[in-house]
Amino acid sequence: MQVTEVVTLVISSVSLCTSISVFYWQRRHGDFDLTRLLHADLTGGEVAKARDVLGTLVRTPGSARRRCPP
């Protein structure tokens, strides 16, 4: 092997490793952003109000849930 072939092989290997690392970092970062957005949707706004109403209904003495037979 000539020196230029070795240098080319090393540069190609470093490029491949860098590309793979960036791919996995971006994928993990994208998954985190999706999780953050879903969490915000499920804990805020209308969903939070609906959960509050349902929680109040379930925990209120004499609610419809307690009057229904098992």
Short description:
The chain has 70 residues and is mainly alpha-helical. The protein is 86% helix and 0% strand.
How many alpha or pi helices? 3
Q: What would you call the shape? A: rod-shaped
Query: How do the helices and strands follow one another from N- to C-terminus?
Result: HHH
Model regions low in confidence, pLDDT < 50 over at least 5 residues: none
DSSP strand tally: 0
Secondary-structure-derived class: mainly alpha
Biggest sheet details: none
Helix content: over 70%
Radius of gyration, Cα only, in angstroms?
28 Å
Quick check: average pLDDT? Answer: 84
Termini, distance in Å?
Answer: 80 Å
Strand content: under 5%
Describe this structure in words.
- The chain is mainly alpha-helical and 70 residues long.
- It has three helices and no strands.
- The chain has helices at residues 3-43, 45-59, 64-67.
- The model has no long low-confidence stretch (mean pLDDT 84).
